[in-house]
Write a structure and sequence with these properties.
By secondary structure, the chain is mainly alpha-helical. Helix content is about 75%, strand content about 5%. The chain has a two-stranded antiparallel ribbon. The longest helix has about 40 residues, at about 60-100. The protein starts with 6 loop residues before the first helix and ends with a helix.
């Protein structure tokens, strides 16, 4: 039975690698010449995607930065100007309604937490969709780069929100109380952005 290259690696190469139809065939031929080395094949796919990313950034630096920033602005507006204020208002209104009707107050902590997660993922997907839809280069690759860029953005945002001022300390000083890293949120947000971006890239390519 003839061994075939890893399907996932081939799919990643076709989605995010250089737009070169002959490359997949060359790598498959090299895969067989190297005694079906899956490690070698994965490494070559990783190199091809890295080369494609560097080339894309060098070819469209302004367009790529602009679309990334636009996607982040869309995420920020949807999340912090629309979704969270609406969620706060809805929870407060329901809480007050129960109080006026003599009902026992509910614990909204878990509901608010899960709802904010859902809204975060939805806003992340929409931001990625907007960024990819207006980009005119390698859209699938932009979706990947957008998803990767979400991680340092999340870390920076969390770090800034962790800065506190201690008025009781002598001398007075600022500090950082960084919360435990939530790996679920850390990985789920880039995945949501990647799903939204890849959907937009697929829709856009079919439209063209």
């Amino acid at each position: 039975m003839t061994s075939r290259p890893p399907r996932l690696a081939t799919a990643l190469l076709r989605a995010f690698g250089p737009r070169d139809d002959a490359m997949a065939g060359d790598l498959e031929e090299g895969f067989h010449h190297r005694s079906a080395s899956r490690t070698w094949y994965w490494w070559q796919v990783a190199i091809a995607i890295r080369v494609a990313a560097v080339r894309e950034i060098g070819t469209h630096p302004i367009a790529m930065v602009s679309t990334l920033m636009l996607g982040w602005i869309v995420f920020w507006v949807l999340m912090y100007q629309i979704a969270l204020p609406a969620l706060y208002a809805a929870v407060h209104a329901y809480f007050m309604w129960r109080m006026f009707n003599g009902s026992e107050a509910l614990l909204f902590g878990p509901f608010f937490m899960y709802s904010s997660w859902v809204l975060t993922f939805a806003a992340e997907m929409i931001g990625a969709v907007v960024a990819v839809r207006i980009y005119r280069g390698h859209r699938a690759l932009l979706a990947l780069l957008y998803a990767v860029a979400v991680i340092p953005r999340w870390i920076g945002h969390t770090t800034l929100n962790s800065v506190y001022y201690d008025p009781t300390a002598s001398p007075l000083h600022y500090g950082i109380n960084f919360p435990p890293v939530n790996l679920f949120i850390l990985m789920a947000q880039p995945c949501a952005a990647l799903v939204g971006g890849m959907w937009a890239a697929g829709v856009r390519s079919r439209a063209i």
